[in-house]
Amino acid sequence: MTPRTLLAGPVTIAMVAASALLATPATGAAVDTATAPAATVAVAASSAAVAAPNIALANVKTQLSQLQSIASANGGNRAHGRPGYLASVNHLKAQLDAVGYTTTVQSFTYNGATGYNLIADWPGGDPNAVVMTGAHLDSVTAGPGINDNGSGSAAILEVALAVARTGFAPDRHLRFGWWGAEELGLRGSRYYVDNLSTTERSRIKQYLNFDMVGSPNAGYFVYDGDNSDGVGAGPGPAGSAQIEQTIQAYFTSIGVPTRGTDFDGRSDYGPFISVGIPAGGTFTGAEGVKTSAQATLWGGTAGQAFDPCYHRSCDTTTNINDTALDRNADAIAYTVWTLAQVATPQPGTTVYSDTFETATGWTTNPAGTDTATAGRWERGDPAATSSSGVTTQLGTTVSGSFDLVTGPLAGSSAGDHDLDGGVSTIQSPTITLPSTGTLTLSFSWYLAHLNNSSSADYLRVRVIGSGTVTALNVTGAATNRAAVWQSASTDISALRGQTVRIVIDAADASTASLVEAALDDIRITAA
User: Fold this and answer.
1) Would you say residue 478 has pLDDT above 70?
2) Which pLDDT score, from 0 to 100, does residue 34 have?
């Protein structure tokens, strides 16, 4: 891979957008965020979602050993124009052909040598909605390139093979790509993108890139698709934030914090984002030096490179962190399975709904324990607010003119009517749930804050009867987070037959933080 910039920003809150139907990472079942880690956003899935399989570390390492053997038999490398590279392409192609992929070897010329891209399409899925996953297959001439980027190539290969093993039938079309001559300036991926027609480009809805996912002194970096870190190259094309948040959802589910890596276009996602294709991916670090703070966060050795063998002959099978490789392979599978399954409305009867266009009896501070001094929950017609270019309150609702919002007025500055001083709560009227069927709560929401926030700030949505189901639990962080409507859907069947209330609370519990939140279009259905 080519060098890239790492961001030292805070943990990104994992959040799932509505355009994909998500299984919760570990089981595909609903999550009660009351028992989940503080940074978790639990957006439970419809039971129609198929959970991603575990990708066996042993299988990925076997692939790496085979790439090492190819390099060793071909002058010690798998570089562009060298026999080891073409042997690598043929080795992967044979495995993909054997399990039913349609493969294409695309040739191109650079520096007087022929290079190759390997493209593999899984039959089925919507051909006008392609989820593409890629990694560069070439090494530098100095070594076999087992971490850079045998690790990414092997991981996505095992994910592709898992699609075939499990009989996965995604809604969207799956495509995988292994790029040539990345080490010489993204030549293979650029050739591929440049030779797509406008129509073919429009069919690729997401591109996922994995370049170095097993660094020995590993960090856990996710491409900053939404520019929430506020530095460097800015956000990716619209839709990149969803990819970032989906990857984050997996790492949050296993308790691994992440940091941003700038969307600077210095790996094979670059040609894709340059033509407006949303992109994302992970990275475990290259020649950059791990800081003391990063070593505290992830373990490893401060003051040493994430990969001391970056672009060197020692980038062999001994140059791999098994834990990082295993986690990233599973994160890739989770992301592919998630994005390839499209949310579809579930049949059923509406038990309760509220668009907040009229007052329906919601109660503020129902227990008399709220501590917020300003910006408390109310049904209102919100005014748009922003601070330092960050949208903190949306002036548009999901439907109609009203929503539930913390302090709907704008004031003369963004902080005039934001949530201040502690907790604010609002509670629905009583709702009687049917005793049979699958019950689903759905709603739209956002939480916005500036970088003076912390994990003490939060937005939480619960359904409370004789028991409690937590539908959403989002915490703040010391980063700018713009207001963007998101959707959530949660199975609340555990409360069948009960009389319940929906309770929404938000907190500004950090010192001098700017926090805003809103909900709209709340609905409970029985299927």
Assistant:
1) yes
2) 27
Determine phi and psi for 258, rounding to 5 degrees.
Answer: -130, 165
Helices (H), ranges, 79-173 = 83-98, 152-166
Q: What is the C-alpha separation between 170 and 20, in angstroms, rounded?
A: 11
Structure confidence at residue 1 as a pLDDT band (50, 70, 90)? low
Kindly tell me the burial class for residue 523, based on how many C-beta atoms sit within 10 Å of its own C-beta (0-12, 13-18, 19 or more). Answer: middle
Listed in sequence order, the DSSP H helices in 224-311 are 240-253, 270-274, 292-298
Place of tokens 């408390």: 376
Report CA torsion sign: 261, 263, 268, 273. Answer: positive
More confident site: 437 or 25:
437
Is the separation of the CB atoms in 80 and 110 below 8 Å? yes
Task: Report which secondary-structure segment, H or E, holds 194.
Answer: helix 187-194
Tokens 């990708």 -> residue: 55
Q: Cα(315)–Cα(512) distance, rounded to whole angstroms?
A: 48
In the predicted model, what is the mean pLDDT of the chain? 88
The confidence band for 35, taking pLDDT boundaries of 50, 70 and 90, is very low
pTM: 0.64
Structure tokens at 460: 């939480």
- So which residues are the catalytic ones? 182
Q: Which residues pair with 472 in a beta bridge?
A: 461
Q: Which of 178, 187, 177 is nearest to 111 (CA)?
A: 187
User: Cα dist. 26→51, 254, 390 in Å?
Assistant: 8, 8, 34
Cα atoms in the 13 Å half-sphere on the side-chain side of 443:
26
pLDDT at 465 over 80: yes
Dist CA 216 CA 287 (whole Å):
11
User: Residue 504: which pLDDT band, with cuts at 50, 70 and 90?
Assistant: very high
C-alpha dihedral sign at 168, 171, 173, 177? negative
Tokens of 448: 């916005």
